[in-house]
Amino acid sequence: MVMYSFIRFLIENLRTDSLMFMNFRVSRSTFYMYIYNI
């Protein structure tokens, strides 16, 4: 749930279309880092 709001926070701040794909990759890698930190 916290991760979802964090990803939404990233998307809201990186709302540019050019950064949309980049934002997806960043959020995905952040998600993996979050899993590794558990």
In a nutshell, what does this entry contain?
This protein has one domain.
Overall description:
The protein is an all-alpha fold and 38 residues long. 79% of the residues lie in helices and 0% in strands. It has one domain. The chain contains two helices and no strands.
Strand element count? 0
Helix content: over 70%
Helix/sheet category: mainly alpha
Radius of gyration: 10 Å
Q: What fraction of residues sit in β-strands?
A: under 5%
What is the N-to-C succession of helices and strands?
HH
Low-confidence stretches: none
Helical segment count: 2
**What is the straight-line distance between the termini?**
14 Å
Biggest pleated sheet? none
Q: What sort of overall outline do the alpha carbons produce when their principal axes are compared?
A: flat
Average pLDDT rating: 70
Give a topology summary.
Layout: H1 2-13, H2 20-37
Task: Give descriptors for this structure.
flat, mainly alpha, 38 residues
